[in-house]
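In the laboratory, one determines a bound structure by crystallizing the protein with its ligand and collecting diffraction data. In a computational setting the workflow is compressed into a single prediction: the sequence and the ligand go in, and a structural description comes out. We illustrate the idea with NAP.
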Amino acid sequence: MKNSLHNNTKLLGLIGHPIKQSYSPLIHNIASEMLGLEYIYLPFDVPSSSLKNAIKGMVALGIKGFNVTIPHKESILGYMNNLSEEASIIGSINTIVNDMGKLVGYNTDAAGIIETLLPFIESLTGNEVTVLGSGGSARAVIYVLIRYIKPSRINIVNRTEQRAETIRSYFSEKMKYDQFKVYELFPPELLDVLKNSAAIINATSVGMFPEIDDSIITQSSVFVKEQLVFDLIYNPTKTKLLKLAESEGAIAVNGIKTLVYQAAKSFELWTNHEMPVDKISDVITAYLNT
Ligand code: NAP
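The predicted complex, in structure-token form:
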């Protein structure tokens, strides 16, 4: 129990289903404690059938903000009074700010992804990038690529090709970018597509704890030296995909920076305070590696 809990303590939380895998309570409670702020962050397991009531409860109880995770990131949009520009383009939210009863939806995954890709912008601009996956995080990745990186082409690879096609037409319309190619997992020509990509970004959940022996790509021969391989997964800190990529000399980046910076952006929206990102990254990395 936090020492600072008293009648001025403000409530933050996470809604999703399931939520027990989330590191957000740890991150936000440690950050709040480090800064001496009067916030507590709690996880709420909310199935889709209770989403509407959970939102009503949030407003009724004056909860300052929520993170939103699977499966509500898209379905919750309709309950917002307002959306940030990014959230409305991406079409999914992971953060809600309760501004005196008016709910504003944000997508801070985009901020975490930008921060992670920042050191690589020069090497990616004007080159081909391959995105594996077509869920909520793939949407945020594609938004960041089009808006900030401007690759010559974005290859979208997904198990369910139709979902990748939906994303292609969505972003072609929303962001007027049409340099997409869509692939199902895994036609033979994908080998060359992957080799020719300046970056391969995994936005699927394949390889995530506890299925740590799985990998969305199983052949190391698709990776090339100095190619960026960015896996949004942060648990484990080194997925099988990243190990395969490193074995061929690729630059392997995990999802910890994205995790911490998306949390930092949400934290700032709720509290107006900057999260101590370096300290939080150290805590999370140590925690995940024990
Ligand atoms: P999501 O919306 O549920 O999408 C999951 C994606 O993974 C879909 O494209 C799905 O393909 C694919 N997939 C799932 N199981 C598969 C399998 N067995 N074989 C092939 N493809 C499979 O999830 P999300 O929100 O985008 O999250 C994806 C991953 O990113 C998760 O591991 C999550 O933890 C991670 N993430 C990390 C951060 C961070 O801060 N680092 C932020 C957001 C997400 P289908 O379309 O065919 O179902």
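Residues 256-271 form the longest helix (16 residues). Keep in mind that any predicted model is a hypothesis to be tested, not a measurement.
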